[in-house]
Amino acid sequence: MQAKLHFAHYYEHKLLQKEKNITSLESIYILEKRNEDWKKKNLIINSEETRLQYYKFREQEALKIVFRNKYDFIKLLIRSGFNVIFINPTQMWFKYSKYDNWKTFKETNDFKISSFIRVFYTFFLYVTCVVGVINFNIKKNFSLYFLFLSFILYNLIISSVGMNERYFVPSIIFFSLFFSIGMDKILIKLKFLKFK
Asked: Whole-prediction pTM value?
């Protein structure tokens, strides 16, 4: 069900809102009305088969809106991609366990703390990884380099479409190769500076 309703849940109402130049609530209302009308006409028996037909209908309608608004969809994906690369180690703790919705969470002091941790964590991780990438011997290990970067890119694409930072978290294991090389170089440099 979740895979079938992905585009309908995350993108359809936003793209319809831009397409018709209406508010978010109006867009959601139009889509809910369309879905209810379809249910009244087609869901005679509340069975698994008819539910799957309903999910297929919603997926097809959402994809029609996506293809009609390709450029706005690509903009949403790019914005989502920038959001997910800022890794959020506090997402499950703050956002999901303490608060009911994003709006409430955004107005709290926890949001500021979470944002600070997120920026610091991301900066530390990526700077160390960049040092690791620079010092990685690509000539000797090109296939390993390519494999790890492919996994990171794959997770970035999947999480951008999913519009959720937590989908990017599995890629951290693939950053570990570059992170360990980078951390090794940084620690050697610091030790060298200390005893100079």
From this structure: 0.70
